[in-house]
Design a protein that fits this description.
heterotrimer; A alpha+beta (532); B mainly alpha (320); C alpha+beta (427); B: mainly alpha; MetI-like fold; disordered N terminus; C: D-Maltodextrin-Binding Protein, domain 2; D-Maltodextrin-Binding Protein, domain 2; seven-stranded mixed sheet; three-stranded antiparallel sheet; 17 helices
């Protein structure tokens, strides 16, 4: 049997036989050393920066990587790992890790309106409430410092354009500045102060934003490089009570949970701001996906069509690709190269471009399809025709891939076998079915499963072609050609902005569903089991 | 199981590959043979294949013709474009290269750089792993293979949130691979390093073990067997997977559109996306011209690879 | 601002989707990189994000004009500037800003404000009342949110009615008149479409708004301060049902003035090809119409006979100061100072071709280009597009409702059902 056959010699042989010639040769050894040296020096040189930035996760990752590489390649153990490690590291870093972190995001309420931490959100709500004091002067500003231009302490050297009088503003308030030189309305020299250049002012933005000069009508704040204005904020944050009070109206806003997030709300439940903050919500996003009435009512139909779409897409592309590959893979057919090149064209054009064009082709009055066929069908207007259009388009997009793969797989089948199964007439088809096709299926079966999974989540095709439509007036959330992924993405991103937490939960659920469906296929295709 | 019967002939070494063996469309003996055939027999055996081929070509090519027509149509709008162009002009191609905010030439170079590096890395990693999966027995092998298939089912577009965060962080310590760098984007694309494992492994399985065994007896190590003996035999599948990898990257724009923000670092796909994003109906000509130029490297690559894909192996073995 | 439905969906779908979230990230990038080149990094090379003293994000259509202003600003202040055209601008900006990885200034449409504010992504501006008074009222209203000014407006856009004067010499006084002449031409075989209003299979609520308002409908009511009130939804009320019925009569089952075949993808092109006498579109269509080679004219969209005036959504283009930018002082100086001049406004108008919002510039430009007046009239007649986040729940279902009605669904029932859908989504 296959398993036995395969599992004989090679594994034992490297150990059983004398050390291999190739891997002991000097150039190979040098290459190994060079690669290890480059890796090691890169990681060593990165370490100080990582430590300084306190990126412990990256630090651990890089050093574990070094240890792994040394352990795998500097010894003669773990031969399979020598071949698996490079790709595995990339896979773990850029696919598996993001999958895990998607799961983590699915346990939060992250999204539009909840991107900040609570402290940031509070500061922004208060900062955004600053209003100019009516009729207060706009000062011409020069920033001075009694210390250093980077660390301060800073002072606003102000000139009131109306009176031309100079004054100095600090946290203690506004005082006259008699000894200042004023040129063109700006302070250009002042005793005891070093003046900042525009770039220095900009660099000190964060510190200067903190500096407010208390006045009767509020406080003077910096505005850009050359201006200061007087304004006030009616909102005050009470750290102990964790509430915000509007000092003008006397209303106090306290955090209150609304939906999956907290807002500052007044006693009547009115929000102070739409801004909320990030929070962990446990499995709420999953609960929501399972209890949402809309999702429940639409799920079965959409899931069914998703299965049909994925199955038919794979079946049709594979069938067409195989037929063409087999039919053209005959040395007597002249111009094979030309055929192959032309049949590849749909694949050579970036698919999103093709999809956008195809969506125009199906237009009732102005589309190419109706022009060429004279059918006059409103393709995207009806559910059945829209589904047909989507499948035909997907066939066009997908068959060159299958054609290529099958053509490649055909090359592994010996000529004499192909000749034995020679396709002439009915007996030829039987020969193909019984001899060639089973052989073709061996290397391609896993790809068919992968292709199924891809089409199961083929967001692009649906999104760029029909947008999920047609929609009926009584159900604008579930369209006639919607797949699970396009449908759920619309739910997660349609209303009041993006909901990353919810979308991630959906992604995880889709992942599980696809996995289960694929696992069932594994079971069904015993052939695949044999291959493994 | 029919594996025994299916095994054919003596194992082929790399030296045998160069032998033409009469395979491939270029074989000079073919046309005379065809001439000698009766017309009826020719139709039964060959002619119908052309009929099928031509039908498929018609299906494949009409949207492409439309793109060609749009690319050469000076008006460049959806309505003024038909399958047969009314006017021929190169204005769209000129426009592609004349607007400094749309450095198409640079996009093309970026795309080629990204696609080439990702293809090389992906095919290399996949071939190495396929060798391990095909020739060694180790713990977790079966699980690993299944896991590979499963992981690829994760809807990638939804993991972009996590990727964005990862690369924002990475960029703060290693700016060279942060957001908005081609290198960072290449790394993300290399997450799919194992995308071709299954296909290559399938091919590996069809190469007889006896080859390895013979080499082992001669004292060759696993590395020698892989690089010197098996790799040359893999040419057809490496060519196919190389092309698949190349095309997979060249049309990727979803991740690119968050990773490559600036005009100067964009790939053609995301660059063209930005062109249509702004105006769909009237940029059609421009966009079609760009699409055609994008297709050129793929077609050229395919032309180059065809010789490896077809007729690379004239006699091999298949295990069932 | 252009709202093709697909673009709107794209913004919500792909854009938002691919965007990330940076709530947890902390320290800003360390900059030990080489000093920035003094010129704009708009063309080539790796991003100058951390190097430049002012980073501005905009889109492809405006990058030329913005770069010109920014470079002048850089020269005046002796600093380096970088202007970058970013795809999916709003989503990318909000995300990058949250990760302290974004620009200092962003240029975009005013209807982003609600979302940007709920994400704390932009700071209010402090422009003096005198200076604000120099901008058109609708523009200032549009960039005011929660009674704070968030953007400096440079352009105003609203839908107008284009007419092929070779086919229809006389300007229609009402929509009914336009529809009638259009249908005549279509029946005579002169044109393929009577009246180009993009509908498409997914519908287009933005382009339907003038018709809907003329028939008495509204989307959100306004509170006394001028802000939109998400609890006052007009979709589904009696006026909207009547509007739905009227639209049904105009659809494929009725007179056929409106059809799903005309979509954002082909509407302008069909008109420019001479295959439609009328086009309902915005200032962005002007270049194509001018290039079409027939006589044309433009007017504010008229209302139905004896009905309310048609009020399109007015979109305002503006500059915003990012809340987490590294160079806030320069950003405030740039937006409040350098952009806030007639000269810069003229540069934006010349480069981006969006009708100006600065009154003095409007007057001087109209003198040279009388047709501009129609665009300005349309913008003033319109209502600012609601920028509240709840608007995100309106465009899709309402567009689909219009598409269904035009395809033959019952107008009144569909509007009621759609009102319910929207109410559920925003509650």
């Amino acid at each position: 049997m296959v398993q036995q056959q395969l599992s004989t010699a090679p594994q034992e042989s490297p150990a059983a036989h004398p050390p291999p010639v190739g891997s002991r040769s000097v150039p190979v050894l040098l290459l190994k050393v060079a690669v290890l040296a480059v890796l090691l020096s890169t990681v060593v040189s990165l370490t100080p920066a990582l430590v300084a930035a306190e990126r412990w996760g990256f630090l651990v990752f890089f050093w574990v990587l070094v240890v792994l590489v040394v352990a795998v390649y500097a010894t003669r153990r773990a031969i399979p790992l020598k071949y698996l490690l490079p790709g595995a590291v990339l896979l773990l870093s850029f696919v598996v890790y993001p999958v895990i972190s998607t799961f983590q995001v699915s346990l939060t309420n992250l999204g539009d309106g909840t991107r900040a931490t609570r402290e940031e959100a509070t500061a922004q709500i208060i900062g955004s409430s600053v209003v100019q004091t009516p009729d207060a002067p706009r000062y011409n500003l020069t920033v001075g410092t009694a210390g250093s231009p980077t660390a301060g302490p800073f002072a606003f050297l102000l000139v009131d354009p109306a009176s031309g009088e100079a004054s100095v503003g600090t946290e203690d308030g506004l005082e006259p500045l008699p000894g200042a030189t004023v040129t063109d309305g700006f302070v250009t020299a002042a005793d005891g102060y070093e003046l900042l250049t525009p770039v220095e002012v900009n660099d000190a933005s964060a510190a200067l934003a903190e500096l407010t000069v208390p006045t009767e009508g509020g406080a003077i704040r910096q505005l850009g490089i050359r201006q200061a204005f007087e304004g006030s904020t009616p909102l005050v944050y009470d750290e102990d009570a964790e509430t915000i009070t509007n000092t003008q109206t006397g209303v106090t806003y306290a955090p209150e949970l609304q939906g999956d997030r907290e807002f500052y709300v007044d006693p009547d439940g009115q929000r102070l701001s739409d801004q909320s903050w990030a929070a962990d919500v446990g499995f709420d996003n999953y609960v929501r996906a399972f209890t949402d009435a809309r999702i429940l009512s639409d799920f079965v139909g959409i899931f069914g069509w998703t299965l049909v779409f994925a199955t038919l897409s794979v079946a049709s592309t594979f069938a067409l690709g195989t037929v063409l590959a087999v039919v053209l893979n005959d040395r007597r057919v002249r111009g094979q190269k030309v055929y192959r090149s032309v049949l590849l064209l749909p694949y050579a054009i970036p698919s999103f471009i093709s999809l956008l064009l195809w969506s125009g082709f199906w237009n009732t009055d102005f589309g190419l399809v109706n022009d060429l066929t004279g059918l006059g069908v409103n393709w995207f207007g009806g559910e059945t025709t829209a589904k047909a259009a989507v499948l035909i388009t997907n066939l066009w997009l997908g068959f060159p891939y299958m054609f290529l793969v099958v053509t490649g797989a055909l090359q592994a089948i010996p000529e004499d076998l192909k000749e034995a199964a020679g396709i002439d007439g009915a007996s030829g088809f039987t020969g193909f079915r019984t001899i060639i096709f089973p052989l073709l299926l061996i290397p391609t079966a896993p790809l068919l499963v992968a292709s199924f999974a891809f089409n199961f989540n083929n967001f692009n095709t649906i999104f760029l072609l029909t947008g999920g439509g047609p929609f009926t007036p009584d159900n604008p959330t579930a369209g006639g050609t919607d797949l699970l992924i396009s449908y759920t993405i619309r739910l997660a991103f349609g209303a009041s902005g993006a909901q990353f937490g919810f979308a991630s939960a959906i992604a995880v659920l889709l992942f599980v569903i696809t996995g289960v469906v694929a696992a069932l296929q594994f079971r069904l295709t015993r052939r695949l089991e044999d291959v493994i | 199981m029919t594996s025994q019967e299916l095994r054919t002939g003596a194992p082929v070494g790399p030296g045998h590959l160069a032998a033409p063996g009469g395979a491939g469309p270029s074989a000079p003996s073919t046309p005379p043979a065809a001439n000698r055939m009766s017309r009826g027999r020719w139709w039964r055996e060959v002619g119908w294949r052309h009929a099928v081929g031509l039908a498929a070509v018609a299906f494949a090519v009409f949207p492409v013709l439309y793109i060609v027509s749009a690319a050469f149509n000076p008006l460049g709008s959806v309505v003024s474009t038909s399958l047969v162009p009314r006017e021929l002009s190169l204005v769209n191609f000129q426009a592609l290269f004349s607007e400094p905010s749309r450095p198409f030439g640079r996009w093309m170079l970026n795309t080629l750089a990204v696609c080439t590096s990702v293809t090389v890395i992906q095919v290399t990693c996949s071939a190495l792993a396929a060798y391990a999966f095909s020739r060694f027995r180790f713990r977790g092998r079966r699980g690993g293979l299944l896991a590979l298939l499963l992981i690829q089912m994760f809807p990638q577009i939804l993991a972009t949130i996590a990727l964005f965060l990862l690369f924002t962080e990475l960029g703060t310590v290693i700016p060279a691979i942060g957001l908005n760098t081609l290198l960072g984007y290449v790394l993300v694309m290399c997450g799919n390093a194992f995308a071709q494992v299954w296909l290559i492994k399938g091919f590996f399985d069809s190469i007889p073990q006896s080859l390895d065994e013979a080499a082992t007896v001669d004292g060759a190590g696993h590395a020698t067997i892989f690089f010197r003996i098996l790799l040359p035999l893999l040419q057809p599948i490496l060519a196919v997977t190389g092309l698949l990898a190349f095309v997979g990257v060249i049309s990727e724009f979803l991740i690119a559109s968050i990773f490559l923000r600036e005009a100067g670092v964009r790939t053609v796909a995301v660059g063209l996306w930005s062109v249509i994003e702004n105006d769909r109906s009237n940029n059609l000509g421009l966009f079609a011209a760009g699409a055609l130029l994008t297709a050129v490297p793929v077609v050229l690559l395919f032309q180059y690879l065809q010789r490896f894909i077809v007729g690379g192996i004239t006699a091999g073995g298949v295990k069932g | 601002m252009r709202i093709s439905l697909r673009a709107a969906v794209a913004a919500v779908g792909i854009a938002a989707l691919t965007a990330g979230c940076g709530g947890g990230s902390s320290a800003p990038a360390e900059t030990d990189a080489a000093p920035a080149e003094p010129d704009a990094a708009a063309t080539t090379g790796a991003p100058a994000r951390d190097d430049a003293d002012l980073v501005v994000w905009t889109d492809e259509l405006k990058i030329g004009a913005v770069t010109e202003i920014a470079e002048q600003f850089g020269e005046d202040n002796g600093i380096s500037v970088a202007v970058q055209a970013v795809t999916d601008l709003q989503a990318n900006f909000v995300t990058a800003n949250a990760a302290t990885n974004g620009p200092d200034v962003v240029v975009g449409a005013h209807d982003w404000i609600g979302n940007m504010v709920q994400n704390g992504a932009i700071d209010p501006l402090q422009i003096t009342a005198d200076q604000l008074g120099q901008y058109s009222e609708v523009a200032v209203d549009a960039v005011t949110y929660d009674e704070q000014l968030y953007g400096l407006p440079y352009g105003v856009e609203a839908l107008v009615l284009y007419r092929n004067t070779d086919l229809v010499p006389e300007a229609p006084a009402t929509l009914d008149e336009a529809f009638a002449t259009g249908l005549e031409l279509k029946e005579a075989g002169t044109v393929e479409s009577a009246f180009n209003l993009p509908v498409g299979e997914l519908g287009d609520a933005y382009h339907m708004q003038p018709l809907y308002t003329s028939l008495g409908g509204y989307v959100f009511g306004q509170d006394p301060a001028g802000g939109y009130d998400p609890t006052d939804l007009g979709v589904g009320d009696e006026a909207s049902q009547a509007a739905g019925e009227r639209i049904e009569e105009l659809g494929e089952g009725g007179s056929g003035v409106l059809t799903r075949s005309v979509s954002g993808d082909n509407s302008i092109a069909l008109f420019a090809d001479g295959q439609a006498p009328y086009l309902l579109s915005g200032p962005w269509a002007r270049a194509d119409v001018e290039a079409a080679g027939f006589g044309w004219d433009v007017q504010a969209v008229p209302g139905f006979e004896g009905a309310e005036p048609a009020q399109p959504f007015t979109g305002v283009q503006a500059f915003y100061v990012a809340s987490n930018g590294a160079n806030k002082a320069f950003a405030q100086e740039f937006v409040g100072g350098a952009v806030n001049t007639e000269e810069a406004m003229k540069t934006m108008y010349d480069g981006a071709d969006i009708p100006p919002s600065l009154v003095s510039l409007q007057e001087s430009e109209v003198a040279a280009d009388p047709q501009l007046q129609a665009y300005l009239d349309a913008a003033s007649a319109g209502q600012p597009m609601p920028s509240i986040p709840q608007m995100g729940s309106v465009f899709e279902p309402l567009g689909q409702a219009y598409s269904a009605i035009i395809g033959g669904a019952d107008g009144a029932e569909t509007m009621v059902a759609t009102g319910e859908t929207i109410r559920t989504a925003i509650s």
